[in-house]
Write a structure and sequence with these properties.
Radius of gyration: 13 Å
Low-confidence stretches: none
Strand content: 15-25%
Mean pLDDT: 83
Largest sheet: 2 strands, parallel
Number of strands: 2
Shape: globular
Structural class: alpha+beta
Distance between the termini: 14 Å
Order of helices and strands: EHEHH
């Protein structure tokens, strides 16, 4: 399955979906993403580097969350 709303720099896995057993590692920055991506099992483990101070999703409006590319893709 191909997702058109992928977050930037996502190192995706081949399996997707709620019952697929897929895992998402959220790491801080590109260097951590590269290190984790080298050690992961690409069949079911994806890596997403986040950058900057993350928003607290319980303290901001949904509109503000959806303006952020990473959060919007995770919610989708």
């Amino acid at each position: 399955m191909f997702y058109t709303n992928q977050p930037p720099k996502l190192v995706d896995s081949r399996k997707h979906g709620a019952n697929s057993g897929a895992e998402l590692f959220v790491v801080e920055g590109d260097s951590a993403s590269l290190a984790v991506a080298k050690q992961r099992d690409g069949t079911f483990q994806a890596v997403l580097p986040m950058q900057g101070k993350p928003m607290h999703p319980m303290r901001v409006s949904q509109e503000k969350l959806l303006e952020n590319t990473w959060y919007a893709a995770l919610i989708d």
